[in-house]
Amino acid sequence: MDYGLKGQVAIVTGSTSGIGQALASALAMAGVNVVLNGFGDHTAIERDRTAMEEVADVRVLYHGADMTKPDEIADMVAFAKRELGRLDILVNNAGVQHVAPIEDFPIEKWDQIIAINLTSAFHGVRAAVPIMKAQGRGRLINIASAHALVASPFKAAYVAAKHGIAGLTKTVALEVAQAGITCNAICPGYVKTPLVESQIADQATARGMTPEQVMKDVILAAQPTKKFVEFDQLAGLMLYLASDAGASVNGAMLSVDGGWTAQ
């Protein structure tokens, strides 16, 4: 499908693995020049960057901004504009997780999760909006979670951060509505990413269950389809929101969760 995005420029945070990597790849295959971001082995990141660039025949760059550092986030946005000439799409995807009862929740983990999952999106949007306003068009897409709409136990920081993303998304959408910019959030259910696989082990410890029991009775228990959400299902919605077809979708929290939040 041609989404009419060829030649546009996107930043996808947390795109060296998991959902972010899949979204960045989908944008590249749609003809978008992409700035990757995230931590990991530098050799592996460069290998993946080069492969994406060659397969999609677009420019793919990498910026190693630390999502806990506002100056580095602002520099990443400036880097995209400087190196690629514009910025059309910002996908705030970076995220981390920690599972623990509230009374045992480490303070440093709370601070880290709020910084990476919520505050980094604020800094990215704050830096990107002036560029998009000058262009007369832009797409801000926040990767939230079903946990932006409902809660689960032992995830105080993550749920708080994702609920914060919902508020940020709606507020920004109202502010930029007449500037040719939209701001929306995609709310996935469980996707089988490295983050979710680590949650299975953490949940098993927190609940005193086996990993197999967690998979059956905790993770997929929330999703009526009993299936993980697929990467391409998220990518399809993201590309729609980035395209002109999605121009009237603004301030929306869009669930892709197999019916989880319909319950």
From TrEMBL:
It comes from the Bacteria. It is an enzyme of class 1 (oxidoreductase). The keyword Oxidoreductase applies. The keyword Oxidoreductase applies. GO terms for molecular function: 3-hydroxybutyrate dehydrogenase activity; D-xylose 1-dehydrogenase (NAD+) activity. Keywords: Oxidoreductase. Its EC number is 1.1.1.175. Pfam families: adh_short. GO terms for biological process: monocarboxylic acid metabolic process. InterPro entries: 3-OHbutyrate_DH, NAD(P)-bd_dom_sf, Sc_DH/Rdtase_CS, SDR, SDR_fam. Belongs to the short-chain dehydrogenases/reductases (SDR) family. PANTHER family: 3-OXOACYL-(ACYL-CARRIER-PROTEIN) REDUCTASE, 3-OXOACYL-[ACYL-CARRIER-PROTEIN] REDUCTASE FABG. This is D-xylose 1-dehydrogenase. It comes from Phenylobacterium montanum.
